[in-house]
Amino acid sequence: MQDVAVIDDPIAAGVSLDPIRARLLAELVQPGSASSLAPVVGLTRQKVNYHLRALEQHGLIELVEERRKGNMTERVLRAAAAYVISPSVLSALAPDPGREPDKLSAYWLLALGSRTVAELGELLARSARAGRPLATFAADAEVEFASAGDRAAFAVELAAAVEALVAKYHHGGAPGGRTHRLVVGLHPKITAPEVDADATPRTPGT
Questions:
Q1: CA-based end-to-end distance of the chain
Q2: What is the rounded CA–CA span in Å between residue 86 and residue 55?
Q3: Is residue 202 situated within a structural domain?
Q4: Number of neighbouring beta carbons within 10 Å of residue 48
């Protein structure tokens, strides 16, 4: 699996969100050069080089190799990771999961997810600086409910199971103990593209 990095610097986030640079980042999942990318994005090699330098300056791409090509040196680059932008980039606007928590609110679930991205980004940076691995766990599953009643019953049982496990393993103030955050979420799966009123298919969120 490709490494995932969290962008928490506002300037780097702006660089990555520029449409041309975002396209270059996507293309550089596989190594490429300004010469190979120019016809793909419809720009001159010089303009592509300009954008690549900006991406490299902020650590979003990395040099793979340099090779001679005629009378010039071609730099082959690739994306340093797959990227997620931390909500901390817009800290004043980041959702606060501590504000009016509601277990049945999609907005609260979104706020919890945003906090997870921000906290994991910082934890990954700290663990890298310390040269120590970060202990985490995640589970992902799909369940198809026969009815809304089954979904509600599942949520009740899941909450009870989580509360029982927390009660069993939580030891507040234990010497050498470390608090961990647990987030469990349930939401519908997107199974088809959204269709406009004129029946023109479009991807969700566009």
A1: 28
A2: 18
A3: no
A4: 23
Give the span between the Cα atoms of 61 and 24, in whole angstroms.
10
Residue 35 Cα to chain centre, angstroms: 29
Same domain, 54 and 30: yes
Residue 32 corresponds to which tokens in the numbers above? Answer: 């490429």
Of the residues 60, 84, 108, which one is the last residue of a structural domain? Answer: 84
The residue behind tokens 């009660």 is 167
pLDDT in tens, the chain (206 residues): 458 888 888 899 899 989 999 999 999 999 999 999 999 999 999 999 999 999 999 989 999 999 887 788 899 999 988 888 888 887 777 778 887 788 888 888 888 998 899 898 889 889 988 999 899 999 999 999 999 999 999 999 999 999 999 999 999 989 999 999 999 999 999 888 887 656 555 555 44
Do 174 and 102 fall into the same domain?
yes
- Domain range holding 55? 4-84
How would you classify residue 103: left for phi > 0, otherwise alpha for psi between -120 and 50, otherwise beta? Answer: alpha
Q: Are 91 and 180 members of one domain? A: yes
CB-CB neighbours of 21 under 10 Å: 20
The CB density around residue 30, as the number of other CB atoms within 10 Å, is 8
Rounded to two decimals, the pTM is 0.71
